[in-house]
Structure prediction request, 116 residues.
Amino acid sequence: MENAKSSSNSTKSESTLAAGTESTPSPTPLRCFTGAFGAATLSLLAYRLTLSVATTFANKPVVSDNPTVVNVSAAVRTLVIGIVALGAGVFGVAALGLGALGIQLLVKRMGERRTQ
Prediction:
């Protein structure tokens, strides 16, 4: 009897998860601005890492007579700098989006308070 109850409870929770009816907390301005601050911090760190990597690569040129080695090293260097710069850009855009969402939520709340 207990097994039947536990199996029905587990199927109910599984169907709830599968249906996506789990309630997610609504965004608040504080959560948005906190996330924006974190994303902006990561973006700034990735940007500084990009500058550091680019400077390091520029100060240490590849010395080889083999054109394949030079081409592959140039491709790898470009790829490394590009990936780090992409990370900086993605976190920067996320910070801007979260900041804009926080402002939008603040304006919406102020509008609701005025109508009351």
User: Anything to note?
Assistant: Residues 51 and 81 are 9 Å apart (CA to CA). The chain has a mean pLDDT of 86.
